[in-house]
Amino acid sequence: MLIGDRKQQSYEPRIVAFLCNWCAYAGADLAGTQRLSYPPNVRVIRLMCSGRVDPGFIIEAFLEGADGVIVAGCHPGECHYEHGNRLAERRMTTLQHLLGFIGIEQARVRLAWVSAAEGRKFAQLIETTVEEVRALGPFQQFPRRAP
Amino acid sequence: MTSLAYYPGCSLKRFASGCEIAGLEAARRLGIELVELERWNCCGTVFSMSSGERMHHLGSLRNLVRVQEAGYPEVVTMCAMCQNTLRQVNNEVRGDGDSLAMMNRFMDEEPAYRGEVEVLHYLTLLDRLGSEAIAARVERPLTGLRVAPYYGCTLVRPPSAGIDDPEDPNIMERLLEALGAKVVRDPMRVECCGAYMGVSKPGTINVRASAIHGSARNSGAEALATMCPLCAHNLDAVGPAPDEPALVVFYFTQLVALALGAKPEQCLAATQRVDPRPLLSTKGLLEEPQP
Amino acid sequence: MNNRVGVFICHCGKNIARTVDVEALRKEAAGLPGVEWAEDDMYLCSDPGQQLIRERIAEQNLDAVVVAACSPTLHTTTFRRAVESAGVNPFRLEIANIREQCSWVHPGTAETTHKAAALVRSGVEKARRTQPLEPIHVGLQRAVVVIGGGVAGIQAALDIAEAGYPVHLVEQGPNLGGRMAQLSETFPTLDCSSCILTPKMVEVSHHPLVTIHTLAEVTDVEGSIGNFQVRIRQQPRYVIAEGCTGCGDCVPACPQVVPGEFDRGLGARKAIYIPFPQAVPFTYTLDREHCLNQGPLIICDRCAQACEPRAIDFDQQPSEELVEAGAIVLATGCDTLPLSHFREYGHDRHPDVIDGLMFERLLSASGPTHGEIRRPSDHRVPKSIAFVQCAGSRDPERGKAYCSQICCMYTAKHALLYHHAVPDGKVYIFYIDIRAGGKGYEEFVERVRAEDGINYIRGKVAKLIPKDGKLEVWGVDTLLGEQVKVEVDLVVLATALVPSQGIQELARVARVAIDGDGFLSEAHPKLRPVESQTRGIYLAGTAQGPRDISATVAHAAGAASKVLGLFSHDELVEEPTIARVNEALCRGCSFCVSVCPYDAISLHEGTAHVNETLCRGCGACTPACFAAALGPRGFEDDQILAQIRALAC
Fold first, then answer.
1. Smallest Cα–Cα separation from C68: which of C128, C20, C3?
2. C339 and C464 in contact (C-beta within 8 Å)?
């Protein structure tokens, strides 16, 4: 088995990122095309719009063992779907208020705007998020679900 | 009788006293009491636009603190320059919380200014009463007197501190009509009078005054009306070149007081270089108003 | 759930294989639940690579496929075709992006291979939960409503009608022609504007497939691309179009004289009138606002008496018509900033301060002065003219921030035409910069600059002072660093172009966006300049932004070609990846209705209903649904949750 229980060994934070297809995912692709380097701790789920992100997905990610979550979409005013990113912003803001209540540090969840031209910004976003989540230590607030 | 805070400024206590005496009398006749602030200081004269020169704005702010202390929401000024400086300083600190906090730290011996005072020019005050209300109080209509309002710069510019449209103001025209005068639209009414150029290059003022008097005369005016002591000084006390004819220059308040029935000696300043009496006499405006 | 998933891992030469241990990855993939087959190849996108996928699908009887390779933006179509040709529904293909988002950005360590494995696992989990999807077929109404009867609307209508589709051309005014009909000659060739526009107006009016609605406006738009229902409100003309012969006998009979809008108030018309001699349709219009008959009582019927064909009908009423259309073209044109905006130039006091369009009327042979340039105040021929460019344009503080695009050119044209008419006349053109970026434009301006008596002065005009029947222009010459004062007989302001009145209401009705300056917003400023943000609604001409005639015609032709592209199919074929409602779960709370950016969801008898042509599949409605009753196909909750599970641990 290649993927062992990493939390037994030296701690490497696991970040789940929800990226919109048009801006943030394209920005992540651009980081690749430009051969920028960033930590491999991030795992991307491609959605059509950041407005598709259900706050429940974020809780689910922590339940499944993630240490941090990123939601990234188009810059305000540039949403491919007119105002999906605004919906994401409102949902994430509400979620941020509730995170402490269920024992998740707010810094573990990050909403960001990354355009298709911002490969470098994407790489930096991953870098800083990984460092910040690393500093918070592994997320162990929730009991691990049985696999 | 309505009471309002009143800030006179330095000029109105000295060479522009005619403006104040007539203005206070006119206000009284309109049922407005202008209560002079107990303590006031120079407004700073010219709004300094260099960002590092905030110290120049303290004078204005202290006056606004005085108004706040006295508990008035508004302060009335007659001098165009004072209204301009007070208003610009007020706008600056109101639009920028950091700037207001910094200025308050500079004046830590004073109560903190909250940025709530409104600066109101005398003309705006009259305009607020409305032409009809003023016309109803006119006892000595200025019938036949052909007056060209002259705004100069500080009454209308910059737009943020002006009392009317900077290019095409109308407030004095409206009020003059209410007073019964014949309004003359002089195309140079928002041109500069020369301002402080008189200090460094005295001849400039004669050139400007000639142009402004000439333009008003060609438009059919017999007199100019202004609200700015500096404009009045340049257009009247300095005036056009000696060999050129000069129109009578009134403070606007003088015309208001005259029309509202004040005695001519309350309206006419001894400091006017071009004597207004012959002109007013031909129009029958020095006589006691007919009841 | 699909349990015969095939995983295909691409080396991409060494692009992936350099940092990812492909063999370890393949072994890992082969052991995943639901995976029937795992294989790697040097270049999967190559023909042999695709052939490999097709063969394995057949051999192994695979029901879903995961390709671990480059970004899905590159080769989704390629691999969808490959799996489809082997009998797997193309929406049962998933791509794991292990190049752009893995091998290219991470070093050749075990952790990189771990990540690639997680991405493959995520892809497999999603692929197992995919459903076969079929494209959605929607009927298509192959008719068009073009709104605006200027040159843009005429061009779009003609192009579409020529291709064989019916067009409704809706014009607010009494006649076609728009701004171009008001112009004298066009830059840079000095073609007579009427001479080139009139044949087009005649052609469109005679075209069997074009229905012209003048004095009409669109008051409501329902439906979506392919199937719009457009409500057209027809104002009464009080002249029966079929009866009017255009003889004009009514005009001398009418006692009411009114300033003519077409001549920008420089000329007069009667209350019954035709705005210009080449008007199409050539039908007179009775302007009831200025007619003596204001109430129901007819007190003056002189026009009706004079009309031999008895074509005047004082009792005409407004009417409405509902038109079915597959597409809409908005060509509502532009206006200019009113002269009253420029208080420093005092038009209300100086009749000899006019705008460029008024000067066009003075130049026009059919204008109020029959083409002789005479100033409004005393009808004298002006011996000197000052042209003020950028009046309101490029002036963010007091006017518009944008450049109006056409003023440099038409001012040069005005100067030249004036100079031809008054050879000893003096011209002063005040400008900020000369922008002559069109074919033959710079050459034209250079030609005008070289004329004796035409002076270009780089600087703005501060104000105009009336002086002895003339206007003294106070300006500045920024090249010489001097104040300029010149006395002229006439001042022409090149006023900024602004959107035509009523555009906001139309944009609201048609549900298209407008920009900060009030022009209609295009879907993309570079790549989709003729499409609005609403599918099926296209933009033509200056309604979208200032442009000259040739650019307007090109823009309109572009809009027409987009319509024809849409109409080249018998029906609309829509992507199936849109929201779907589980009617058994829907409670009818309508939260989804309020978040949808496209108004694609509506409630029918207490249940949400998705309009398949309006929905774009963004999925914003899904988190809003408390009942988990709707989700976009291809990105459903169970798929995403399975991906989270695959990635987070």
1. C20
2. no
C463 to chain B, any CB pair closer than 8 A? The answer is: yes
Q: Is B in contact with C (3 or more beta carbon pairs below 8 Å)? A: yes
Residue of A nearest to C70 (CA): A29
The pTM is what?
0.81
Alpha-carbon distance C407 to nearest alpha carbon in chain A (angstroms): 31
- The size of chain C, in residues, is 649
Nearest CA in chain C to A13: C648
Q: Mutating which of B167, B173, B183, B218 best tests the C interface, going by the most C Cβ atoms within 10 A?
A: B167
The domain ranges of chain A are 13-134
Of C64, C63, C67, C85, whose CA–CA distance to C76 is shortest? Answer: C67
Could you please state the CATH topology (level 3) that the domain comprising B140-282 is classified under: Rossmann fold (3.40.50)
Looking at residue B95, its pLDDT comes to 87
The nearest CA of chain A is from the CA of C48 a distance in Å of 25
Question: Which residues of chain B does C344 touch, with a Cβ-Cβ cutoff of 8 Å?
Answer: 167-168
pLDDT at residue number A6: 46
A72-110 tens-digit pLDDT: 999 998 888 889 999 999 999 999 999 988 889 999 999
Predicted pLDDT of residue A4: 41
Q: Which domains does chain C have, with CATH numbers?
A: 5-133 (3.40.50), 144-235+318-333+500-567 (3.50.50.60), 337-498 (3.50.50.60), 575-633 (3.30.70.20)
Instruction: Report the pLDDT averaged over residues C31-44.
Output: 96
Average pLDDT over every residue of C519-546: 93
When pLDDT is cut at 50, 70 and 90, the band that residue A8 belongs to is: very low
**Residue C483: strand pairing partners:** C476
Task: Round to whole Å and give the CA distance between B209 and B247.
Answer: 10
Class of B2-122 in CATH: mainly alpha
- Out of 3.40.220.10, 3.40.50.280, 3.40.50.720, 3.20.20.70, select the CATH number for domain A13-134: 3.40.50.280
- Give the mean pLDDT of C366-380: 95
Dihedral (Cα; C349, C352, C355, C359), 10-degree rounding? 160
Residues of chain C above pLDDT 90, percent:
91
Burial class (CB within 10 angstroms; exposed 0-12, middle 13-18, buried 19+) of C406: buried
How far C430 CA lies from chain A's nearest CA (Å)? Answer: 38
Contacts of range B46-55, beta carbons closer than 8 Å, 24 or more positions apart: B46/B81, B46/B85, B47/B84, B47/B85, B47/B88, B47/B89, B47/B161, B54/B99, B54/B102, B54/B103, B54/B106, B55/B106
User: Cβ contacts (< 8 Å) between C466 and chain B: which residues?
Assistant: 187
| Same fold flag, B2-122 and B140-282 | no
- For tokens 């009831």, the residue is C288
* Mean pLDDT per 10-residue interval, chain B, length 291 residues: 93 93 96 95 85 83 96 96 95 91 92 95 96 96 96 94 93 96 93 92 94 94 96 95 93 96 86 90 88 67
Among all residues of chain C, which has the CA nearest to that of A39?
C106
What is the pLDDT confidence band of residue A147, given thresholds at 50, 70 and 90?
low
Percent helix, strand and coil across chain B, each rounded to 5?
A: 45, 10, 45
Q: What is the pLDDT of residues B154-163, one digit of tens each?
A: 999 999 999 9
Q: Do C101 and A147 touch (CB under 8 A)?
A: no
**Of B167, B187, B215, which is closest to C343 when you measure between CB atoms?**
B167
The interface predicted TM-score of the complex, written ipTM, equals 0.93
Only one residue has tokens 């005649």, namely: C202
The C-alpha atoms of residue A47 and residue C617 are separated, in whole angstroms, by: 10
DSSP C443-472: HHHHHHHTSTTEEEEES-EEEEEEETTEEE
Distance CA C99, CA C20 (A): 9
